[in-house]
Amino acid sequence: MAAPTTAAPGGPGPDTAAAPGRTTFIEVSLALQTLAVFFQAVTAGLLLSAHGEVLHSVGARVMYGASMLYVLAAILAWRPGGGSPRPVLYATGFLVLASVQVVLGIAHEAAWHVPLGVLMFGLSTVALGHALYLRVGRRAAVRK
After folding, report:
1. Less packed terminus of the chain by CB within 10 Å, N or C?
2. Rg (Cα) of the chain, in Å, rounded?
3. Distance between CA 24 and CA 22 in Å, rounded?
4. pLDDT tens-digit profile of 79-129?
């Protein structure tokens, strides 16, 4: 008889865990958010070119939308199993940072806008790494 599985803290419960090898909505939303923040870093360097401002502006909208998608994914992953609300808090916190980032960008406050962007990229990368780490853990638990 197999031992019951337990979820990692803040991760989905046994009833809501993704099937091994399947990509979850939260992983996709985190990957999209991380790529969007990285795109913003690249287009920030292009602000001196002719099309840099347009690309950075469009990227800001995509990044903000990806942050909202991350909140939605976290809520959908949390609600069915009644697991920890921690991922929802992380996603909401990131959305707040994205809101502050947009305001700072519109105000042309580069002294705050740039370091906050670096922080956001780091946080998004860590969250994505954690989600992928949990995925590897789920896969290893199934193989046992």
Report:
1. N
2. 17
3. 6
4. 777 777 888 999 999 999 999 999 999 999 999 999 999 999 999 999 999
Out of 58-62, 114-118, 137-141, which region has the weakest mean confidence (pLDDT)?
137-141
Structure tokens of 122? 């780091």
**Read out DSSP for the chain?**
-PPPP-PPTTS--TTTPPPTTPPPHHHHHHHHHHHHHHHHHHHHHTTTSSSHHHHHHHHHHHHHHHHHHHHHHHHHHHTTTT--SHHHHHHHHHHHHHHHHHHHHHTT-HHHHHHHHHHHHHHHHHHHHHHHHHHHHHHHHHH-
Residue 6 has pLDDT above 50, yes or no: no
